[in-house]
Every structure is written in structure tokens, then in C-alpha cells.
């Protein structure tokens, strides 16, 4: 139940055993074109897609170095580790960054974003972290951004690393210019592949203004794909096979069903764990459905709690990030998450509390979760 | 018989099936510290090592962005695709690049390098591609560079992507400051992990002058390793397991035995294939032992030749790179290469020639290869 890397289905793991092929061969073209086409379906886009061999951070960095130049004005909401990192990368490009800072666990409101656009007519790009893994918040107004964007003609970039595939994000419909994710989150593949989509106008910009970098230079990927359906650098072949299998599973399940499953499991976890005494860290309207961050109960020690949970029940959850270390713990509700994961997690957490001398209401927590899960 | 990715032993492939772990856990520390320690043994270094989740190009780019700043003077021999790319990356940093250009298939001599050092007392770094994959050349005087370096106090950087693990390269003994390779070449692991070693003085420089980049920022890797033996970004876990297994196999065989095996197989391939009528592309004293580039016979068409070889005998070799397309083909002699690979390759190439109507001396080619292989 980690906030990534998440559980990987056996079918996906086994795909890695495919023998190593020549990455300059027809076998590779077959593999890679299927990867690209299925990624487009999951992203709901007809734009170009590149599957980078790197962690999600690599794709995020690619979205910055290929689009932002010295002096560009960029608006970005910042309220956690990953939005801070992204903002830092944009600053490194020499951009003029308009940060919409809010406390951790709380998002900038749509009105605040609108105001920022109104006050910065010369904005070059709007960057947003869809789902802040460090605090368990999620932005709910991504569909409304295009109206602001079109008024300003800015690029719209969504870092959806820890949620894409778990919630509605129709890239073309919402006019997202650049969108990226990581293979090891809601897509339920092993870590190491990071897909990124690029709209035609963003692509044009990137080809006309290639950055002075090599590995994340997207113009180079466009060129190789156009010429031969290859990648410019040797790709992580076993991970591409695994990622392709994960995409197949996603499309077999169907996006709608997958989004619904994520939502229901998340509702059940929030309700069940609230009922046994925890309070979510994030503000109610900003709560993520894939990362559930909960405040520790008074006196409940992070390491002891998580170690007991891991050693007695083999249920793995993550601690807090940075300043939140020891104050919150985080549950991943993504990828293959299902009713058994939810029930087992509530049960194990409740039992761990009992073992540590806390009085908990296990029966109530499980009952309310079970009710929520009925819709599955 | 590709010049990478190369054949991967079953044991290494199977290691990828290890279930996905938390990269912020003791399980990960156990995995990663073994990876680092065994990489140090293979590199013959006590310096810091980082295992990047990227192709070899990622590690090469890391060696540039962490060390080179605007205005720095850098000496680099250039005679092929990979040395050109490296030189390009150094130029992108705003460096003043002294290129020692020689024709493809021919290396700058040691005297030329020495002269460049004599003429550029203010040199900040010397970069060299150990083994040029595009043309099948290999630099033979890496052990003599430290004398020049110490006179100038410059950093010594060796891009050993397509050969490390196949030939002697004692990083500490030869005072190499930064050395990198790729997992999918002579180390015989799947592609996607790129180890890089950094000497104490290079490390100090990198920590004091961190570059404005994220994914390849080595200072960040040093910090995470020192604090917790973690990596800053989610690593490609299955590939790390595979790479660890590949390192174990290398150390079980022993470095000396492995280097000897590479040399003998390479000698046998050169001798056998010369005997059936091919001439090596590279100048004799500069010929690589892991990449054997051969000139096509008059009228021998690249695609037909390689397709026949692949479809009739399942022996895969690579074509030429860039300008050399259609003029040469390249055989990888690395990783798991053994006597059967050598004999089968000569046999299949000879048979392909026969099928295409060429007169070849198969008997002679196999006999001379067999003699060379006796030393194995």
C-alpha cells in the first residue's frame, strides 16, 4: 500500500522475461509503437508521446528543459515537496516564477489561479502538480484551466506522476500541452519508464527551440520516432515490455472502470480509517484519491507503527516527507488496489493500534468500508 | 552478437522477477549497497559510485553537467558518433573545447594528446571515449594519461560505456576521476542502469558546484547515499536486481579471466573473419576487442546480408552508423561471449556469403579461429 512503487501484477512481471532484442530492429518497432499507441489511449490524446527510460522526475525535468527559457514567466501552485522541486527546476532555467504558495495539505483555489492569470498576461506557461504525493492533495479544477490558458495563449503542463490512470484526465479534451506520469504509480508497472505527451504546438516549439541537453531532449525523440519508430538512446527494454503489459491490462479493464475502482477504494479507506480514529492531513475538498495522508494519533510513534504493520501484517505504508516526518503516514491507493487491499489495510492498521495499546473501533471501521465497497 | 544490448544470462533475467520493494526501506539498502560495492570492485575503485536509472548516455551527460562550466577548457579526442556527441554535450556547457579530430577508425596518438596538454596548460578536464562503438576503435594508452593530467591538475574522465568489464581499466590505479559505463554492454545485464564512479576530488568539486539540473545532479545522489543509502529518485528496481546478479557473475568469473576471454574471442573473430575475406575497418593498433567493425565486400548489400544472417541463422549483427551505413557491419564481442558464439558467428557469416554467391574459405576461417580459441 505504498504511494509508489506499487504492486505489479504477475502478468506484468513476467513480461520482463522476454529475451533482450536489438533496439534497432523490427521487433523493437512492434514493441515501441504498441507502447506509444496504448499510452495515447490511456492519456486520451492523439498527440505525440515519448516513453522515457527514467523515473518520473526525468519526465518532469524534460517538461521543463524543453519548454522554458531564460526570462519566461511561469505560474505554478506550490504546496509540497514535488511542486517545490518542479518550481526549482523552472527557476534553474532562468524563468520568472510566479508561485502560488499555500500551506501543505491545501491547494491554491481556482480563483487564486485565475487571479494569477489576470495579473500576468505575459505568462508563458502554467505548470501544475496534479497530485502532491508528499501531502495527499489533488487538484480538482484541471478541466477549467483551458479557459484561462486560451485567454493567455500559454502552455499548460500537468505533472500527473502519482495519479494518471487512476482518475479522469482527458489530455486532449482539457487542452493539456504537456502531461507526464511514472510507470510505477496508478499504471501498476515497475518503476523506470516515464511517459510524456506533447501537443502539436508544444512539439513545434520544442523542435524550433531545442535545449542544450541530450538525454531529455525531446526533439531528438521526435526525430528518431518519425524516421524509424526508434528511440535515440538504448531504452530499458525489459521495463518497456512490462509497461506494455500494464497498458494492456488497463485497457482491458477500461478507463472508466479503473477510475471508479480507484474512487471507491479511496472512499472506503478514508471512511474506514476515519472511523477508527484517524484524521486526513489534507483539507477535505483537496484530498487525493491515490495518496491518503493521515495524521498520527497523539503519541503514536512513526517507526514503531509502520514497523509493526510491516512485520506483523506485511502491510507497507510510507512515512511523512520532509517536515511531515513523524507527523503523518501515507497510504497508496493506486494501480491494482481492490476490495481486499482496502479491508486488509484497515484491519491491519486497526490491529496494530490494538497491539500498541490504543482502543480502536475495528468493527465500525470495517463496516463502513464494506458499505462503500458495495458499489465496486 | 550485437554491439549492445548484449545477451543476458538466464540468472540475470530471473533476478528481475523479485517482487517490487519500497525504495525507502532496509530491503532497498541491502540491494543498493551490494550494487555499489560490487560496482566498485568491477571498476577497481574505492571512490563513490552512483548507479543511475538511465541509458549510458545519461551517465555520460552526468559526467559533463556536473563537472564543466562556461569557459572551462576541455581536451577531447573525436573520431566517431559517440565522441562527437560527448564533445557536443561539453560545448553545450559553454566550454572551450579542444578537439583532437582524427578520421573514423583511427585514434589520436598519445603524442597528439601530449601535445594538446603541452599547448593547453589551463585545461580543466580531459574527456576520452575509451571504445568508440560506431567505428570499432579502442584507446590503448589510458594508463599513460595520469602523467599528463598531474602536470596540469585536470580532471580525467573516461567514457567506457561499451567496454568496461571486458578489458583492464583499474580506475584508481590509473587515476581516473570520473568513469562510466552501461549495464547492457560488457557487463551483460539488461539496458537501463548506468554506473558512474567519482573520485574524491571530483566529488568535492561537484558538491561545491552543483549544476542547475535535477535527474543527473550527482551531489543529490551523494547526499541521499550518505544519509540513508537511498537514491534521490525512484530507481528502476527490477533492473537493479538484474544488474546486481550480473555483477555477482562477473566477480565469480574473476576480472582477469573475463578480460582474457574477451581478448581471445576477439582475436579469434578478427582472425577467422579476415581469413574468409573481410578487412577490419579500424587501423590495426586501434582495433577494439568488444566491437568488431568490418568493411563490406565489394557488392555485398548491408540489408540483405544482415537479414539473411538473422533469418537463416539467428545471428544478429549491427550495421554501420551515420556515414558508415552500408559500408561496414559491426559485431559485438562482449559480456557472455564464448567459443560457441565465435565459431557459430564465423560459420553463419561464411554460410551467408555462400548463399549470396560469394566464394569463401570457411574451413580456413574456422580453423584459425579454433586455434586462437585454444588459449581459452
Q: Can you tell me about this structure?
A:
The structure is a homodimer of 376-residue chains. With 376 residues, chain A is an alpha/beta fold. Chain A has two domains: 244 residues, Type I PLP-dependent aspartate aminotransferase-like (Major domain) (Aspartate Aminotransferase, domain 2, 3-Layer(aba) Sandwich); 119 residues, Alpha-Beta Complex (Aspartate Aminotransferase, domain 1). In chain A, helix 10 packs parallel to helix 12 and helix 11 packs across helix 12. In chain A, strand 11 and strand 12 form a beta hairpin. Chains A and B meet through helix 3, helix 4, helix 9 and strand 11 of A and helix 3, helix 4, helix 9 and strand 11 of B.
Report the radius of gyration of chain A as a whole number of Å. 21 Å
- What's the main sheet of chain A like? 7 strands, mixed
* CATH-derived topology of the largest domain in chain A: Aspartate Aminotransferase, domain 2
Give the second-level CATH assignment, the architecture of the largest domain in chain A: 3-Layer(aba) Sandwich
Rounded mean pLDDT score of chain A:
97
H/I helix tally of chain A: 13
Q: Helicity level of chain A, as a percent range?
A: 40-55%
Strand order of the largest sheet of chain A: 1-9-8-7-4-2-3
Assembly type: homodimer
Strand pairing plus helix content of chain A: what structural class? alpha/beta
- Poorly predicted parts of chain A: none
What's the CATH first level of the largest domain in chain A?
A: Alpha Beta
Name the biggest interface.
A-B, 52 and 52 residues
What is the number of domains of chain A?
2
Strand content of chain A: 5-15%
Report the count of strand segments of chain A: 12
CATH superfamily of the largest domain in chain A: Type I PLP-dependent aspartate aminotransferase-like (Major domain)
Would you list the SSEs of chain A in sequence order as H and E?
HHEHEHEHEEEHEEEHHHHEHEEHH
Kindly, what is the distance between the CA atoms of the first and last residues of chain A, rounded to a whole number of angstroms? Answer: 19 Å
Shape of chain A: globular
